[in-house]
Amino acid sequence: MSSKISGRVSPQPCPHLLDFCSRNGSKPFRSLQDCIRVKPPGGRAAIRREPFEVPRCGTCNESSRPRLYACVACAAVFCHAPPFHSHASAHALSVPGHEIAVDVDRAELFCCACRDQVYDRDFDAAVVLAQTITSTTSTSGSTVTQCKGTGSQPDNLRKRRRVDYSLWAPNSRENAIIENHSIPLHDATNGSLISTTELPWGLRGLNNLGNTCFMNSVLQALLHTPPLRNYFLSDRHNRYYCQQKNGATLNGSKNSRFCLACDMDAMFSAVFSGDRTPYSPAKFLHSWWQHAANLASYEQQDAHEFFISMLDGIHEKVAKEKRKTHSPGTGDCCIAHRVFSGILRSDVMCMACGFTSTTYDPCLDISLDLEPNQGVSGKSSVAKSNNSCNVEADCMGSSQNCGISTLKGCLERFTRAEKLGSDQKFFCQKCQVRQESLKQMSIRKLPLVSCFHIKRFEHSSIRRMSRKVDRYLQFPFSLDMAPYLSSSILRSRFGNRIFPFDGDEQDACNEVSSEFELFAVVTHTGKLDAGHYVTYLRLSNHWYKCDDAWITRVNESIVLAAQGYMMFYVQKMLYYKASEKQAASWCDVRK
């Protein structure tokens, strides 16, 4: 929900949704439960009066618009197709009290006045209940009967068929229509229109190929990662040369081998070609499926899991070709590790004699736990915060949490010394017995681009349940990583008494700048198994919302109010090595 933030307070809820709920009682959305259809069982929910109903816009009678919304107050269906027009918004403005609608294809709440998604626990409870009923009835084989004369099963029990994807290309007539009727991009900050000459270079939407918003959101961030962008646009990886070297042909023969770096090179060429029509990354999706066969499906996947899997795919391909023996932590093996790879330091100190065991581990990102609520212990904070929010929502499987966390607070918690439990005693080489110990994490080497992953999805094998943590996270536009470096941690632990074996930490932190600037935020809205990913990009001093094929300019307040899942920060100053000398060069992340 797009709400402006002032200071350090949580984003305010939509006033139109509050007014609707106050006028319609405590459970205004339970009547929609009979209209919620889930297909296939366990899949995405949709709004239909009848299983085979084809909704159409009440104004233009179109059924193929990008978004169709059903008014909750009168059940009328209208389309919303920014930047061209929005009949849903026109209906909301003409009839007071009809601002809240439901996406008929996604079963998600939408405020037509604010032109943004909104959230309500009662509505999510109705969707979850419908999904539960559908999954329960689908598991009972004795209740499934075929219709006489048709031999077909009910709509929500049909298997999803995989169809071959065919890329659409406009013909001469359609090209003429596009050129004559194109409208500039809509600016959500002030309602004005943006001419194509004002758009940043490379800003292009990505088509959803079937629950691929997780992929599109990460690709948008990577396409505008400054070091990665400069690498591919300077032809450092040429897909034609790579395929010829490996004996592959460009037409995808049986002997061709997938290469994610080649597909990234093709994607960079297409996105930065100047074409503004949405791009379909079908070839990249197919190559990623070959690399991660266990994730090859049209089901929704985790954006963070895709990010790690994709970088590993680029690394494995390049490492095999170059036969390099570099460690991933050095950042010299491939472009993925040169941009994102850092080194974490782990110190385990014996509480009896003070002996410290130090290990170093390479990392492509840092996964952070959200801070527990104030006055609540870490183990019980989640349960208590849920109970304080809404007992009924808990019964329905809601994952709404109270409280506010900050990115700096999460980093401080990550690098804070913690006492290991009695069941985690480590063997002290000096005492020659197992002793209780203190463990502390720190960052020995910063990457060029730091990716912070927020652990919003929790899985409990004991309770056999999974849920999403919706707690609000505050994150800064500029971030100083100096307090979390190993050199700073050691200095705070020992003062000026830095021991000789720790001297290399000072050299490691001097190679890079500790000042970082935010340029991309991947957000997740909705529930654990029925959510949607959106990316916010900072380009040319403006923020843009990338929602699959749709690009909209937004205010900073909307970015700050978003539910951050992955944050991408780039160093404000990058160091380039020329021979044996280092030359500092400013990297403008806003262009």
Automatic annotation (TrEMBL):
Please give the Gene3D superfamilies that the UniProt record associates with this protein.
Cysteine proteinases, Zinc/RING finger domain, C3HC4 (zinc finger)
Cite a single GO MF annotation.
cysteine-type deubiquitinase activity
EC number annotated for this UniProt entry: 3.4.19.12
Xref: InterPro entries: Papain-like_cys_pep_sf, Peptidase_C19_UCH, Ub_carboxyl-term_hydrolase, USP, USP_CS, Znf_C2H2_type, Znf_RING/FYVE/PHD, Znf_UBP
Q: Carries keyword Zinc?
A: yes
- Outline the extent of the UBP-type domain: 12-136
Using the UniProt record, name the top-level EC class of this enzyme in a single word: hydrolase
Question: Which key words tag this protein in UniProt?
Answer: Hydrolase, Metal-binding, Nucleus, Protease, Thiol protease, Transcription, Transcription regulation, Ubl conjugation pathway, Zinc, Zinc-finger
Q: Give compartment(s).
A: Nucleus
Q: Name one GO biological process term.
A: proteolysis
Respond yes or no to whether keyword rRNA processing is given for this record.
Answer: no
Which Pfam families does this UniProt record tie to the protein? UCH, zf-UBP
Record-annotated USP domain positions = 204-572
The reaction(s) annotated as catalysed by this protein in its Swiss-Prot or TrEMBL entry are:
Thiol-dependent hydrolysis of ester, thioester, amide, peptide and isopeptide bonds formed by the C-terminal Gly of ubiquitin (a 76-residue protein attached to proteins as an intracellular targeting signal)
Q: Name one GO cellular component term.
A: SAGA-type complex
Q: Which family does it belong to?
A: Belongs to the peptidase C19 family. UBP8 subfamily.
The protein's job, in short, is:
Recognizes and hydrolyzes the peptide bond at the C-terminal Gly of ubiquitin. Involved in the processing of poly-ubiquitin precursors as well as that of ubiquitinated proteins.
Name this protein carries in UniProt: Ubiquitin carboxyl-terminal hydrolase
Question: From which source organism is this entry?
Answer: Gossypium stocksii
